[in-house]
Amino acid sequence: MSKKIGFLSFGHWSDGHGSQARTATDVLHQSIDLAVAAEELGADGAYFRVHHFARQLGSPFPLLAAVGAKTSSIEIGTGVIDMRYVNPFTFVEDAGAADLISDSRLQLGISRGSPEQVIDGWRYFGFAPSDDETDADMARRHTELTLELLNGDGFAQPNPRPMFPNPPGLLRLEPHSEGLRERIWWGAGSRATAEWTAREGMNLMSSTLLTEDTGVPFHQLQAEQIQRFRDAWKEAGHEWKPRVSVSRSIFALTNDTDRAYFGRDRHSSDQVGHIDGGIARFGKSYADEPDRLIEQLRGDEAIEAADTLLLTVPNQLGVEYNAHIIESILTEVAPALGWR
Question: For the chain, which domains are there?
Answer without folding.
Answer: 4-158+166-337 (3.20.20.30)
